[in-house]
Each structure stands twice: as structure tokens, then as C-alpha cells.
């Protein structure tokens, strides 16, 4: 057994994706995970393409559960329950995704009172749709309706109903947040709180947490007299080339000018905003640009765009991703198709690389029917527990589990900043570095909102991502600036960056340089494409990650183009990097050994969009996009009586169908042969859609959702940005926290999608800093005098206002 979490004992009572993906990440990092199932087994065993031979489960099950041991519990067997309780009594962590009202939790003795008797030092992670409390706690949900409730179902193909994200990506996201919460809870448990630490994870809040702060943006638009739900499409977005789809993504005004020059239409350079928001110029531009784009291959368009430093990437699917040279040269996908001793298919590898504690090749997933077995003595000998707790990092204050951790934050935009925002929220001292010559590019996001000379302090995306930090400006193009940065890094526990690899290497702030002055430093590097490989120096941002990793190809209608998810790739990478970092900190606490953590964002994207490549490797076919449909039951997104309001509805089984027939006051539907069974409804999906649409058009989205939900049918309104502050469930769980910004005033910022008890009482500690706000105090802490600091300011190595603003 190896890995930074070697010795961590985890019991998983989970099914489908959220719980198993949480524990998969922990297993990748060396944890000993025991997966507990009932005799019917995890339903994901039967989802999608099955492994060949008599293995008896799907490729997706194997991906999610490789490396775990198994235990099957018969509810009526007293011996099984006693063995399960013994297993829990010896564990450090229990992860379950039972519904809050599940009887199984009580039948198996996993309720809070019994767990406290069995193991008071246990950390318990409970994952549920809306969390363990609040008015929506017991609402029936499906992946579609949860996406709808959290603002993930969006217009991605103009003129058609909003559509969900494909490949069950949101469920992986919730699982990754659960892993982050689990490792935080373990630190708190080590403080000896005398009872189990509970981490209450809300999938709903996890999805909201990955959105690019639409509620803050809507608030700002309204204050400026603009529609709060205004949207702009990324440009160019996904376009057709001669041999496939390609994503060309303008992040800055300069990118747009370069794209216009590249396609031979420089006259459109002044019309970026009008084209983004769908003005008449948009149609004219694409009418003229499309012939040129479609005369080029995907590879040529990517190569030409990248030569001009325009973010571009191919849109891959389950087949083409395997021939992508960057993935291939990095050996990311695990291919066992030619190994007679293995279960033959292709799956993603671990979504992070740790230089001193690499992930091991996973063992096969457990078969169903294994008896509950006691823990091996091996885990105790690998990592002896400190005072009965796994974590070697007990906090002195459980409300600040990362207090004392020094973080030097060289990140830009969102992915790295999300990691450091989390650490700072719970006590870490995070020093954010930018410069007055070239500030963090995230300050420029939302160019429509530029107002006043201090516009760079007002951006909602900047503010939301950089809470809980101190801000230091250093001109890293100067020798003095680089020397000061190295001095800061020498005293840090953690250094974080997510530039393209050449940037920090040119500054002499790469890992090899840092360990010369700080031998036990942990450095987290989060390049878009990875530190090595033929595309390592490509430029890219979230949309490129979605396009290259297979996320976009699974999203959209079967007869339409691939669609961008528009945002979540950054925080998804940040959460995975946080999981790896928290594990590496445990390893350092035990061994004194720091290390380099590489989190290539394209690999995280592929890890949470795993199913297409798995299915292609097993079937030789690329599954078509599914729009809003489901493989085993009928569902969709339907118009309502109010323009631009939609509602998502799922009918999972005959009970749901009977309840829906009652709600629409059409009892005759129950005798309609077209809808008599689940298979019949799937075969007559369009007719089902017509029946439901005729009813939903006569009601508001709230009326439809309430009428069906009260009958136990999963149904949710499509949440719009301008209504995200008006959700009773979020108020009940204190998801938003109000902080006062010195320039833009009070704002309600989204928090983290879990509650830890005992643990932090607030989501955030401080509002985002202004540019260079903490120059004097940070530089004084590393020994500079008042005169030294004044000299740096005179030479514009530091400063508090953007140059040439």
C-alpha cells in the first residue's frame, strides 16, 4: 500500500456516482476503501456497456470502484450487521449517499447515535440531493431535475429548449467536493472532539458552486440598469471545420482582434460585444467566416490559432480523444484491452500526479457477494494513528482547520484561485501575487461591467474567487520582484500556480527552483494541458478544457452541435487539486517530505467525463448526444405559460406515471397503451412530450414543479441567474454570506457546498482584497523596512493602482 493517504480506512455505503467517485479519489491517493453493498448491488454495475466475459458489471462500475475491497450485507443477517459495525468501528471515514429519510441508514445502524457509540473518532460524509436539512431536503430528484434546480440547464443551442450537461458530469462534481470535505473533516476529527464529525454535502449546492458567479453578475447588471438575465455567447465557441468540430475561444479583446485577422474579417474587430450578445452582426460574421473555417481541418485550425496565441482545441468524443497527442504522450488513459490478465477496456487515469507518492495502478473492482471482512493489520502498520485519529494535522480551533498554513498564491483566473480561496476561508494565510503592470486576468472578466477608473476592482468573478486572501503586487519581470517572490516562497508551506508551464519557469519559480530554498515545500501546478507533452505550451481556458476532455461532445441535442458547458472546468480542477494537496499535507506531516503536485486540467476534465471513452473501448461505437433524455425513463425540459421559463420533469417508473396522470387530470392516460410500461413510454417519447407540453404551457414553472413534487414526481424550475438569491433552501442552509467590499459595497457571496459539524461556522473570513492592499504588511513580515518598501513603490515594483488603467 502506498500513497499520501496510506493507512486511511474508509467505509463506503454508496451507489451510482457521487459516493463512489468521492472514495475513488481517496483510493487513488492510497486510502483503503471498503465498498459495502446490499445483495442487489450498486445499480451502476448494470449501467452502460458491460465488461466482456462473466465479470458481471459495467466498465463505468469498474472505473469508479477499482482498487476497493467489497462487502455485501444481507439486511436480515445479524452476523452481517455485526461485521459491518465492527468495520465501521475500525474506520476513520464513512462515506454514504443515502437519501436523508432512508430507512437503510437506520436498519444498518448508520444513524448518528449509533455511529457515536461505535466510533466517536469517525468522520462521516453524507451526500444527498439538497443536504440533510432545509425545506427541499426530501424532494425527489433525478440528475436532470437537480441540474435544473441549480442553474445548470441552459440554452446551449439557440432556438431550442435549454439542455442539461451530458455524461453525468455533475455527479462526479459532487463526489469531488465530498472528498474535499472528507479530508477537511478528518483534520477536525484529529482535534479530539469526542464525537463523529459530520460533513453534510449538498449536490444542489455543489453544482451552484461551480457556476461563474451568475448571481453576482446579475446583481451588477441590475444595478447598471441592464437585464439581470442578460447573456453573451463565447466567441467563436464551437464551430465546424472540414473534418469535425473545433473550439476557438476568445478570452480577451486582443484574442478577438486576432481571430478576425485570422479569418480575414478585420472589419468586425470593433463589433465584439454586439456579436457576443447576438446582434445582427453575429449572423453576418458567421456567414462570412464559416466558408473559411470549413475549408480547414481541425488540426490545422488548432495549430494556426495556437500559433497566434488564440485559445483553441479540438472537440473530442470517446473515440477521437484516444488519438489526441497530448493525452497519448502523457499516457493518461489506462488501456488494458490487450492484457489477458486484466479487465479489458480503456479508462481515465488518476486526475492528479504527485511526484513522491504517485497513484498505483488500481486493482480490479470487487465482485458482488463478498463477505464483510475485518481490516487488515497492514493499514495500521503503514500509518499508525495519532491519538486514535488518522490525520496528523489536528487544528487548535476546529472552526479554522487550516490555520497556520502559509500559502503563496501565484495563480491567475479561476482554477488555482478557487483552491486558495478555500484554504483561506478556513484559516490559511494566503498571499495572492499579481502586479500593477499585469494583474490577474480575472479582473478583466466581465468587460461589459467596466465603470470608473477603478473598474478592475469591481468584477464579480474576481471578487468571488479571491475572498479570504491578502494581495501583494510584485513585478516579476524585474530581478528584484523575482527575488522577493523567491523569498516569500521560501517561507511558504504551499505554492500554487496555474499558468502555462513556461511562465513560472521563466521567472525561476518552478518546483526545482523552489526546493533549493524550501526543501519541504508542496507546490501545486495546474497547467491547462500539463507540464509535459507536445501541447504543454498551448494557451487555453475553461472552454478549451470542456472541448478537449469530452465534456462538450456529450452535451447538446442528438441532431445539433456539441455545446459548451460554459464555466465549470475551472472550479472542478480547483477542487481536485485541493483534494490532492490535502492528502500531500498529511504525507508531509508524517514524513517531512514535500512534493510537486501536477493537476493537468484536461485530465481532470476527462476524469469527470469518463463514460464516453469507456463505452467506446467496449463497444466500438460513439454514443450520440442525448439532449435532455435518459436511457431508462422518460424526461425532458418543457415550456410553461410564462415566456422564457422552463421546467424539468422526470418520470422514472409506473408510480411516477400514475402521479403525473393524476396531476394533469387525465386518468385515461393510464390505459393508453403507448405509455403502459417504462419501455413503452421510452418508445413513444415524443408523444409523451406532447402530452406533458400541452399541460405545462397552461401553468407557470413554479406551479408545475410544486404540483408534481407534492406527488413525489421529480420536477424543478430552471433556475435563472437573476433568481439565485431567492431560493428558500439556500437561505435555510446559509449558503450565501454577506461581506462588505470597500468599493462596491455589500454582496452575498456563495459559500462551500457542505456543512461540517463541529467545524467552521462561516463560509468566508474576508472580502476580496484590492490591488496591492497588503503590500506594506506582507513585505514587512519578510524583513523589509519602510524605506525599502517606499523604494519598491517608487520603482513600480509594487503599487496599488493599475498602470495605464
Description:
- The structure is a single chain.
- By secondary structure, the chain is an alpha/beta fold.
- Among the domains are: 195 residues, Crotonobetainyl-coa:carnitine coa-transferase, domain 1 (Rossmann fold), CATH 3.40.50.10540; 95 residues, formyl-coa transferase, domain 3 (2-Layer Sandwich), CATH 3.30.1540.10.
- Helix content is 35%, strand content 14%.
- The protein is built from 31 helices and 24 strands.
- The protein has a 7-stranded mixed beta sheet with strand order 3-2-1-4-5-6-24, with helices on both faces.
- A hairpin with a 3-residue loop joins strand 22 and strand 23.
- Helix 7 runs parallel beside helix 22 and helix 21 packs across helix 23.
- The longest helix is centred in the last third of the chain and has 23 residues.
Give the helices and strands, then pairings.
Layout: E1 9-13, H1 18-28, E2 32-38, H2 59-65, E3 69-73, H3 78-89, E4 93-96, H4 103-107, H5 112-118, E5 123-128, H6 143-149, H7 169-189, E6 197-202, H8 203-209, H9 214-223, E7 236-241, E8 244-249, H10 253-262, H11 272-276, H12 280-293, H13 298-307, E9 312-314, H14 325-330, E10 333-335, E11 346-348, E12 353-354, H15 378-382, E13 406-409, H16 415-425, E14 429-434, H17 460-465, E15 470-473, H18 479-490, E16 494-497, H19 501-506, H20 511-514, E17 522-525, H21 542-548, H22 569-591, E18 596-598, H23 601-607, H24 611-619, E19 634-639, E20 646-651, H25 654-663, H26 678-683, H27 685-696, H28 701-709, E21 715-717, H29 728-732, E22 736-741, E23 745-750, E24 754-757, H30 775-781, H31 786-794
Parallel strand pairs: 1-2, 1-4, 2-3, 4-5, 5-6, 13-14, 13-16, 14-15, 16-17, 17-18
Antiparallel strand pairs: 6-24, 7-8, 8-9, 10-11, 12-18, 19-20, 20-21, 22-23
Amino acid at each position: 500500500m502506498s500513497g499520501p493517504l496510506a493507512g486511511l480506512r474508509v467505509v463506503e455505503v454508496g451507489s451510482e456516482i457521487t459516493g463512489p467517485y468521492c472514495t475513488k479519489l481517496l483510493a487513488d491517493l492510497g486510502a483503503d476503501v471498503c465498498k459495502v453493498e446490499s445483495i442487489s448491488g450498486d445499480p451502476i454495475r448494470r449501467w452502460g456497456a458491460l465488461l466482456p466475459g462473466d465479470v458481471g458489471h459495467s466498465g463505468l462500475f469498474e472505473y469508479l470502484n477499482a482498487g476497493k475491497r467489497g462487502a455485501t450485507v444481507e439486511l436480515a443477517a445479524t452476523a452481517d450487521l455485526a461485521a459491518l459495525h465492527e468495520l465501521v468501528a475500525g474506520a476513520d471515514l464513512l462515506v454514504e449517499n443515502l437519501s436523508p429519510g432512508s430507512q437503510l441508514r437506520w436498519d444498518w445502524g448508520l444513524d448518528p447515535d449509533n455511529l457515536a457509540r461505535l466510533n466517536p473518532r469517525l468522520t462521516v460524509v453524507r451526500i444527498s440531493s439538497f443536504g440533510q436539512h432545509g425545506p427541499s431536503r426530501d424532494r425527489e430528484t433525478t440528475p436532470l431535475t437537480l441540474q435544473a434546480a441549480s442553474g445548470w440547464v441552459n440554452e446551449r443551442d439557440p432556438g431550442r429548449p435549454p439542455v442539461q450537461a451530458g455524461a453525468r458530469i455533475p455527479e462526479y462534481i459532487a463526489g469531488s467536493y465530498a472528498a474535499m470535505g472528507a479530508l477537511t473533516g478528518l483534520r477536525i476529527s484529529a482535534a479530539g472532539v469526542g464525537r463523529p464529525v459530520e460533513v453534510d454535502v449538498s449536490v444542489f449546492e455543489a453544482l451552484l458552486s461551480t457556476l461563474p458567479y451568475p448571481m453576482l453578475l446579475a446583481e451588477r447588471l441590475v444595478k447598471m440598469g441592464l437585464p439581470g438575465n442578460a447573456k453573451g455567447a463565447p466567441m467563436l465557441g464551437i464551430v465546424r471545420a472540414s473534418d469535425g468540430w473545433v473550439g476557438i475561444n476568445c478570452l480577451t479583446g486582443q484574442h478577438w482582434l486576432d481571430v478576425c485577422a485570422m479569418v480575414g474579417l478585420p472589419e468586425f474587430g470593433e463589433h465584439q460585444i454586439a456579436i457576443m450578445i447576438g446582434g445582427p452582426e453575429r449572423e453576418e460574421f458567421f456567414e462570412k467566416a464559416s466558408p473559411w473555417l470549413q475549408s480547414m481541418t481541425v488540426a490545422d485550425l488548432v495549430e494556426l490559432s495556437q500559433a497566434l496565441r488564440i485559445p483553441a482545441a479540438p472537440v473530442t468524443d470517446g473515440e477521437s480523444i484516444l488519438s489526441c497527442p497530448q493525452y497519448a504522450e502523457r499516457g493518461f488513459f489506462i488501456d488494458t484491452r490487450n492484457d489477458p490478465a486484466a479487465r479489458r477496456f480503456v479508462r481515465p487515469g488518476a486526475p492528479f500526479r504527485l511526484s513522491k507518492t504517485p497513484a498505483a495502478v488500481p486493482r480490479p473492482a470487487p465482485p458482488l457477494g463478498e463477505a464483510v471482512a475485518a481490516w487488515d493489520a497492514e493499514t495500521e502498520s503503514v500509518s499508525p494513528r495519532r491519538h486514535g485519529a488518522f490525520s496528523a494535522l489536528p487544528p487548535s480551533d476546529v472552526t479554522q482547520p487550516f490555520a497556520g498554513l502559509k500559502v503563496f498564491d501565484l495563480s491567475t483566473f479561476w482554477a488555482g484561485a478557487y483552491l486558495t480561496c478555500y484554504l483561506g476561508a478556513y484559516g490559511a494565510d494566503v498571499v495572492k501575487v499579481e502586479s500593477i503592470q499585469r494583474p490577474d486576468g480575472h479582473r478583466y472578466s466581465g468587460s461589459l461591467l467596466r465603470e470608473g477608473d477603478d473598474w478592475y476592482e469591481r468584477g464579480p468573478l474576481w471578487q468571488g474567487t479571491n475572498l479570504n486572501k491578502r494581495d501583494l503586487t510584485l513585478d516579476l519581470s524585474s530581478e528584484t520582484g523575482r527575488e522577493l517572490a523567491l523569498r516569500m516562497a521560501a517561507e511558504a508551506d504551499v505554492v500554487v500556480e496555474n499558468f502555462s508551464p513556461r511562465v513560472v519557469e521563466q521567472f525561476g519559480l518552478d518546483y526545482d527552483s523552489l526546493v533549493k530554498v524550501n526543501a519541504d515545500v508542496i507546490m501545486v501546478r495546474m497547467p491547462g494541458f500539463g507540464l509535459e507533452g507536445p501541447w504543454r505550451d498551448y494557451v487555453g481556458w475553461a472552454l478549451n478544457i470542456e472541448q478537449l476532455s469530452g465534456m462538450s461532445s456529450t452535451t447538446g441535442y442528438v441532431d445539433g452541435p456539441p455545446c459548451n458547458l460554459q464555466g465549470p472546468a475551472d472550479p472542478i480542477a480547483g477542487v481536485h487539486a485541493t483534494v490532492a494537496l490535502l492528502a500531500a499535507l498529511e504525507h508531509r506531516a508524517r514524513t517531512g517530505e514535500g512534493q510537486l503536485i501536477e493537476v493537468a486540467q484536461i485530465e481532470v476534465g476527462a476524469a469527470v467525463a469518463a463514460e464516453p471513452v469507456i463505452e467506446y473501448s467496449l463497444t466500438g461505437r460513439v454514443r450520440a448526444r442525448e439532449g435532455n433524455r435518459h436511457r431508462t425513463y422518460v424526461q425532458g425540459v418543457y415550456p410553461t405559460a410564462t415566456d422564457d421559463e422552463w421546467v424539468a420533469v422526470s418520470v422514472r417508473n409506473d408510480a411516477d406515471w400514475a402521479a403525473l396522470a393524476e396531476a394533469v387530470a387525465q386518468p385515461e392516460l393510464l390505459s393508453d397503451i403507448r405509455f403502459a410500461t417504462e419501455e413503452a413510454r421510452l418508445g413513444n417519447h415524443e408523444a409523451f412530450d406532447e402530452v406533458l407540453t400541452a399541460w405545462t404551457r397552461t401553468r407557470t414553472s413554479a406551479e408545475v414543479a410544486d404540483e408534481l413534487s407534492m406527488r413525489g414526481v421529480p420536477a424543478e424550475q430552471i433556475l435563472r441567474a437573476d433568481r439565485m438569491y431567492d431560493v428558500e433552501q439556500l437561505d435555510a442552509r446559509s449558503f450565501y454570506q454577506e461581506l462588505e467590499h470597500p468599493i462596491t459595497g455589500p454582496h452575498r457571496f456563495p459559500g462551500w457546498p457542505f456543512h461540517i459539524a463541529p467545524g467552521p461556522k462561516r463560509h468566508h473570513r474576508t472580502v476580496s482584497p484590492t490591488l496591492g492592499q497588503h503590500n506594506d504588511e506582507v513585505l514587512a513580515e519578510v524583513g523589509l523596512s519602510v524605506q525599502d518598501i517606499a523604494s519598491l513603490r517608487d520603482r513600480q515594483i509594487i503599487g496599488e493602482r493599475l498602470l495605464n488603467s
